[in-house]
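Subject: sequence -> structure tokens, single chain

Hey, anyone have a minute? Need the predicted structure for the following. Not urgent.
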Amino acid sequence: MGTSKGWLTALEKELAEQPWQAVRSQLRVKLLPQEGEVYVLAESGARTAKERAMRHRRLKTLWPRLGEIQQQELTRDQRLEKLGAARDRAGRVASGLVKTTVTAEGKLTMTLDKVKLRRVRRREGRYLLRTNLSADKPEELWRCYMQLVSVEEAFRTLQGDLGLRPIYHHKPERIEAHLFVAFLAYCLATTLRQRLKALAGGLMPRVIFEKLAALQLLDVRVPTTDGRELLLVRRTEPNQEVALLLARLKLQLPPQSPPRISQPKST
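Reply:
Had a minute. Here:
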């Protein structure tokens, strides 16, 4: 299981004395057995680059914004309000690196906390795990953790991308059907994710669902003069963006269904 940043601070000195062990490319760990458990400090090169880029981007946006607020003619309360909004948009990490002070006269001063910045840089891409498994095989610990990540990702997909919610059924067969539909939807979403890796790298299933939502299936019913009904089942034509996406995924829409004539119901 993952642990909070507070545990990383508390165990920082002891972890510093442990050697790094390579698990795979761009991933290394430190193991610290304590009281029947093992703390695993993991460092990912890819995660380091991602977190560092996010922090740099937000800090690069926050600093000029603070300069704008500093130059504006505002009352102290107005300056504090704009300062709070800017820090909220920048996020906790970026805003925590900039010390700001507003005097009683409303003058804003700002300084970059370089000591904290160096500490943040050292911790980027690192996270602490906690397990009761043996510390003999770091690769096994990492594999178990990735299984946990996959399970959590499955729940996020079911609740987020697929929008599935609990339904209170009263019959066992309906409960089984609900579980089957939810599992089938997840399997299709996972299959789509795997296809996207090879055919359209960078796209997520969530984006595909949003784009394909523009396609609709309609029933057009036209009464005839002899009392019958002409049924036209029609799908909307994809726009240019959806057509390009379908071509990228090597998918073809089925042809339009032929019209059907239905007889009037007897009374």
